[in-house]
Amino acid sequence: MSYDSDIHSPNHMMVDSQDEMVVQPTQDGNDPVAIIEPDQLDNDADPLENQPLATDFEAMKEIVLPPLLEEPRILEDVVDTWTVEKWRSLPKKEHGPVFYAGGFPWRILLFPFGNNVDQSSVYLEHGFEDANSIPDDWSCCVQFGLVMWNRTDPSLFCHHTAHHRFTKEESDWGFTRFLELRKMFQPSWENSDRPLVENESCNITAYVRIVEDETGVMWHNFQNYDSKKETGYVGLKNQGATCYLNSLLQSLYFTNAFRKAVYQIPTAEDESVNNSAYTLQRLFYQLQISNLAVGTNELTRSFGWDSRHVFEQQDVQELSRKLIERMEERMKGTAAEDALPRMLSGKVKTYVSCIDVDYESSRIEDFWDIQLNVRGIPNLQESFKDYIQQETLDGDNKYWAGDDHKYQDARKGVIFTSFPEVLHLHLKRFEYDIQHDTMMKINDRFEFPETLDLEPFLEKGADNSEPWTYKLHGVLVHQGDLNAGHYYAFLKPSKDGWFYKFDDDKVTKATMRETLEENFGGEYKSSLMQSRSAFSKKPLMRQMNAYMLVYIRSSRLNQVLTEVDQDDCPEHLQKRLDDEAAAKEAKRKEREEQHLFLPVKVITEQTFKHHASTDLTNFDTNPAEDPAAARFYKMKKQATMAELVETVAKDLNQEPREVRLWIMVNRQNKTTRPDQPIMDLRPTIEETYSRSAGTSRDYALRVWAEVADETDEQGNAVWPTYTSNANGVVIKNDLILLFLKYFDIEQQTLEGVGHLYVSKEKKVEELVPIISKKMGWGDKLPAGEQLAMWEEIKPSMIEGLKAKQTLKAAELQDGDIICFQKLPERKSSGEILGKTLRLGDKNSEESLKRWDRFDDAKAFYDFLCHKRQIRFEPHPRSDKVDMEGFELVLSTKATYDQLSERVGEHLKVDPTHIRFFTANASTGAPKAPVRRAGNPTLGQILNPSSYTSQNPQTKSNALFFEVLDMSLAELDTKKSVKVTWLSEGITKEDTFDVLVNKQGHIEDLIEAFAKKAGIKDEREGGRIRIYEIHNHKFFRELVPNYPVLSINDYADVIAERVPEEELGADGRNFIKVIHFQSDPARAHGIPFKFLLKEGEPFSETKKRLEKRTGIKGKAFEKIRFAILRRYDKPSYLTDESVLFEEGGNLEEEASLGLDHLDRTRTTRNGGEMFLK
């Protein structure tokens, strides 16, 4: 009988995950595709020709209980048969008799007429009578098969099989669609002459296999799973695609000696999120003490990664090298200075040894990890043999052994002289496939042992005072293919304990089979693949396999896995994290109690006087930072308004009866003004807020606190209006509450003055003496001085008030704002009120002279509506090294010329010589220069029309500037050439933007470049070579009379001093040099020309190359040199090679390749790998 995919619990709230067979829609949404798990393939095999009888329980067991992928130890097999009679008379649900397996009761659960389907439903369930008596953590892993068969003819049967982790919550599991009802009672069952259920009776046999749950998580659904509780360890959160990083970090964390060394890095003076050593310490300590999975956001930010990097899978080996390298740098000069080299670095010798004469050339270098081949190699030991395999140099490829021995047959290879305490092995699971012209993942089977003996791979005479045996302590796994996949790790934290699987935020125990066998790769076992040919001729390969192994030397296990306790962590770090935890707990408690409180924001006379902008305050600013911000009070919702008045009065150092609060309302024009005083102080704050629902844009009660100017004999406040009589009736007279602001022309400031009460019937001109007195100018203005007044209706609507108009006619009401100013000399009120803003008027002489000063408040209000604080930074390539960044407050209506004028005034330079650059919103780097044509406004410069719909939060308020040696008008006659200057071989690069006349030649470019770079010209310093490169390859050298306009835009321009030895040399004796990593197609760095000398052995040539490149010490020693020819593999050179003979005669076809690590290369996914 074929396998049924509908396996689940009869409980409607418990549906099987269908891990036996998953049906998913195809990409085009048409026919479904069955995705078959390998351990279930037997069940879909074609029916056997000679099936056993259902009464042959041992034979049937082989069919219904096939081998499991997990290969757990079998604890007990039990077979139990239930005879079902009077089928049509059975109730909706029926139980079979209880039987025991594994010490627990079990029984068959039958829905004879289906569990809401037109098929019979059969399940296995535990038989505990009282489910409440079952321990909460009870579980039992069971593989089971259910067979329904004819009692008279046992050759007629139907079977299904499954496995499940039974728990208190998941007490039953089985098959909702076991068998169609119409088929059960058909007279002929599968070409027989009788039905399966005959005379309303049949047998149902349960085959129950209890298997060992060695790890405690087999077939676990992981609902409410607690890693810390179950294993003692916590995982790492996945930021998006950082599972590869999580695996590596866990591996380094459980290398205890590495963790201790990281803790020893001094970071007390640099507790910055940009310090990768500090963030790694934080991460390790959190892994040590936390009960929940830890995030890696701080660490990746310290790497300099943005959101793009955390969603890209980076190269793990390169990440490992860079992270360890960065930590080694931070450890220099500390107690842990030699810890990492001692722990992680070994030595390998590269040699060429003559066969017939006693001559050998060799060099020894350090290694931090080893890359081993996987393709076509069965196991780790064989891969090591492949790594040290010798190459014979004979025939045309003989080795030059110097003048004494000439050309000799020789053996070339590598051999290890020592291995580190902790050995990192990277398996080459990703390789370039020449047939498909792409990178491919290699899923070949590759075995690795739990104990590894490395002595056979050491040179004779190596130090054998300790055995070179290593224990496996880490297996880092990739599951998936080249383009998509998942990373996790199997790690052994202690010397003799378990391996654990670290899968992002989840940690579980792991068996040795899970750690080893399941990660070897290759085909699934044949016992699980009996029916593979029914589906595909190709073998089904495991997609999960090891890509990195961590071995620890057996004799150093105690040192490497040394105990790490809390005292090892820096004290300052513990205190910082404890403080953060306490603050986090306080915030959590605050959130929990938040529903009990309501924030209150209060405007006072003092905050208003500090306010220098529109409206009465900015409710969004912080009172601790801005004295003009509304005061903030966190009040209990059930507190009365009287309690709020007491709190505010105490804060203002006033008596509560001298303070009253006005409710603030949002007007239709989007301003917020006081509406009326709160007379009844008995309601709660919540009730008052509810009554004013809709008056506040945020969840806060907004009020204005008024302090009485006078009191009566009893000390009670005397309020000008809104007073209560003895009966509690509120009396409102004709006085209105107005707020006053003063625009100071001389200081170009706007400030709050205070409030006043005035009758509606008064004229505007009658406010002048009141204002004069309030400002301390006397009872009236001095002779010849006048005031102009405006009503601030809203920030963008400022209307002048007429002197003879009454306040009522001007439609003024409670909470309105009047702005006043002194009139400048020889300006009438009519001239001021009728004047239009000239900012941006290109034809106005005054606009160009005094565009950033304002003669009237209306113009200043317009400035406030359009002002932006702009950050100016010198362009990174600017040669004005003494210039620093600064900030200016400017109007977005300011034109390019006005912007240049203001910046030039600040920098004390000619404004016509300033060029501006906008900033990239994502990286903050400068973009292309701003075009002056059309004299655009600052708003147009910062937010071009194509981006006007962008989120205001993303608008940039930064510009880069560059002070030129010429005006922008003269600049239009120049061509900008980006020149990279090589001042120290090729190790130091400085890039300059050089301006040269468009009609000029390379000799003019050289002259301009020397001046720009501040170096000696050719007459004093020697000849300068200019050449173009493309894709890291030498393109061509540009001669002095070559036109500047003909320089290729796609090529990079390189400048260098011509070495003295190359002056006057024959041009045919040069060879082009390129840098590459492993494959010539992976070129990097800056190529150059190099002079060959006839008959010079390469040992001498290397000395000149070291001087020519500027690469020194170990970095140069690690370089391998090869002759590169088109369509041919690199031909690597030895110290005895003669480069002139190898490549000198083929200078157009051959080049010299320097094979070394590209520290700026992109990963296979395209993302740059870097650590700050």
TrEMBL record:
GO cellular component, one term: nucleus
Compartments (UniProt record): Nucleus
Occurrences of domain MATH (ranges): 77-208
Gene Ontology molecular function, alphabetical: cysteine-type deubiquitinase activity; endopeptidase activity; metal-dependent deubiquitinase activity
Keyword terms of this UniProt record: Hydrolase, Nucleus, Protease, Thiol protease, Ubl conjugation pathway
Classification via InterPro entries: MATH/TRAF_dom, Papain-like_cys_pep_sf, Peptidase_C19, Peptidase_C19_UCH, TRAF-like, USP, USP7_ICP0-binding_dom, USP_C
Annotated EC: 3.4.19.12
Protein name per its UniProtKB record: ubiquitinyl hydrolase 1
Source organism of the structure: Anthostomella pinea
